[in-house]
Design brief:
By secondary structure, the chain is mainly alpha-helical. Helix 3 packs across helix 4. The protein is elongated and about 50 Å long. One of its GO terms (cellular component) is FANCM-MHF complex. Pfam families: CENP-X. Keywords: DNA damage, DNA repair, DNA-binding, Nucleus.
Length: 104
């Protein structure tokens, strides 16, 4: 026993620790919106090219957008689960969008 997990003893332990095939999938990677992308999207709607956005305002706007997108995705996922769909589709987002807009 040398403590090396690549030995045959360690390999048996790894197979025994493998999750069952019916285990739920691992959570998806966290949503990350780049501040640069949010800034560019906002600039598309500024009426004056001289309009400026402070660093703190940009950071807070990016955080709010991340929360909004995450909430919409979770609601669409719940709707897909309720209908028994194997994947979340546009129709699930369309179903939850009116209530989501009223809630925000």
């Amino acid at each position: 026993m040398d403590g090396n997990p690549s030995t045959s003893e360690g390999a048996g332990d790894a197979a025994a620790a493998a999750p069952p095939t019916d285990a739920p999938e691992a959570p998806a990677a966290p949503l990350v919106l780049k501040e640069r992308t949010v800034e560019e999207l906002m600039r598309l709607h500024f009426s004056s090219p001289r309009t400026r956005l402070g660093a703190e305002g940009l950071r807070l706007t990016t955080m709010a957008l991340q929360l909004y997108v995450r909430e919409a995705a979770l609601r669409a996922s719940d709707q897909a689960r309720l209908t028994g769909a194997p994947e979340v589709g546009l129709e699930h987002l369309e179903k939850v969008l009116p209530q989501w807009l009223m809630d925000i």
